[in-house]
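Table S5 (text form). Sequence records supplied for joint modeling of the two-component complex.
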Amino acid sequence: MVEQFVVGVDVGGQTSKIGVVNAAGEILSQSVIRSDVYGSDADAFLSALADAIKANIADSGKEGQIKGVGVGAPNANYYTGTVSYAPNLAWAADKEVKFAEELSAKLGGIPVILTNDANAAAVGEMTYGVAQDLKHFIMITLGTGVGSGIIVNGQLLYGHDGFAGELGHTKVQENGRLCGCGGKGCLEAYCSATGVARTAREILDTTEEPSLLRSLDNITSKDVYDAAKEGDAVAMKIFDFTARLLGKSLANFVSFSSPQAIVLFGGLARAKEFLYEPMMEAMNENLLHQWKGKIQILFSSLKESDAAILGASSLAW
Amino acid sequence: MVEQFVVGVDVGGQTSKIGVVNAAGEILSQSVIRSDVYGSDADAFLSALADAIKANIADSGKEGQIKGVGVGAPNANYYTGTVSYAPNLAWAADKEVKFAEELSAKLGGIPVILTNDANAAAVGEMTYGVAQDLKHFIMITLGTGVGSGIIVNGQLLYGHDGFAGELGHTKVQENGRLCGCGGKGCLEAYCSATGVARTAREILDTTEEPSLLRSLDNITSKDVYDAAKEGDAVAMKIFDFTARLLGKSLANFVSFSSPQAIVLFGGLARAKEFLYEPMMEAMNENLLHQWKGKIQILFSSLKESDAAILGASSLAW
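The corresponding structure-token record, covering 634 residues in total, follows.
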């Protein structure tokens, strides 16, 4: 039998990453294209993506051996194969794009499977990462936004319409911050990289405490991390606030699906050393008796640049 | 082939209800025993329950045709067949009781299947009630406490340990009311019958507004309902507060499993006329774009006294 390969595609707001992957989860060839230079023209983006996928397949020397293409994208739907109303993708911001169908046509009929980016990360972690032995876990992606993929009995939870697992938009604060979704008090408005930056500005504005962050114009979550590394007390407070709010939310999620573990992934998860303890403490304070001290919080073991491609690709097997 | 029957048992804090049920969901014979007169002696309760089940089977004339016994009980676990640390059951308040194994032994080996009471209600609703055509819904039981049973792809969500679906203990208020579980700000402390009574006292204590409720010593949720029926403005406010908090929580639950509908059941659900509109409005305000206006809120169509027995019995098929 001829060996088979899959293509993994991670569609992001700024760039999309493409890789040809073998059954062992090794990336044979990979490339990156821009996602943000096509305006509202979805067909132009899909054509550029199809060309990049074809070039990648040619580079890998595996033409004719591609079983399918797995794609992770924001606001993507597994059931319908569409990307719709994705605020961070100009070509899908105000409409529904038949992504899977149109990309497959441009690839001469190679099957295309689509899911949202956090779901892809969850499957990647289960196939290649720290969740390989877990049948019940929740993946939380802490990036520009907060995404989630929920695994129940070893399978992604899709719900009746394919949109299950939008935990970044559960409400965590009464009359809280306005979120990109239009709602108020969403977890994403606090526990994303941008949420951390907003917390930084709020805390700096309401205390006189000296901080390395005061000299910066445009504070990012990376700046907060660097300051915390230097022992900056305000930076520590920012992470402590973020971690406690996240921990309390995790307890709510456990009450829902009773997972063995929560897996954290994404840029902000790199601040593990500042987040872990207060997050674990807040989670356990808010858990029912039967779960206290029993739910693990794990951090993704996959290289971030690879994880998204691997996760998406594993859908195509 | 000989026709088969099942027994449904609903174990509650004060009483336990037993019924013999046929495949059409008709209760052939039923009885009630006290649950609260055995102190901490679980064996005494199980013996009394076994006797009552045997008497019921004899009454129905279906000896030898019983396929199994399905039991719904607070803090019951489907995987382990145990009832453990149930604050409202003195004989299981501080220990784990091997309920299924011991009851089965007392019944000469008839299989006993156990699940928590809200899960049993969800299965009952799916088998005989308003959820017969639904494969994705969340049952919320609004009684003395708030319980939940989550149906995904037509099956109960149990999680890794059998305890999934404790939505009554998700946190809905920062530094909120103390709950029976020891936690603070749980949904159950607000949207249960007892929660409504607490809200009533709080609102009466902080306004001067005249109300029919002011003359009462020990306000119950039933009193609030009766007053609202008379057009009492304070009673309406109490239900409005309850409904809005519940609606917002329902939006969080939808973000998790994306159900087609939420089904409400239990004493408080009888106040539908006062709860429905503000609850629906608060849920839709807090839902993401793709769900707004699309998620139904249904009220159980089963007679409350029968529903628990039917739900539990349907586990045994």
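Note: The radius of gyration of chain B is 20 Å.
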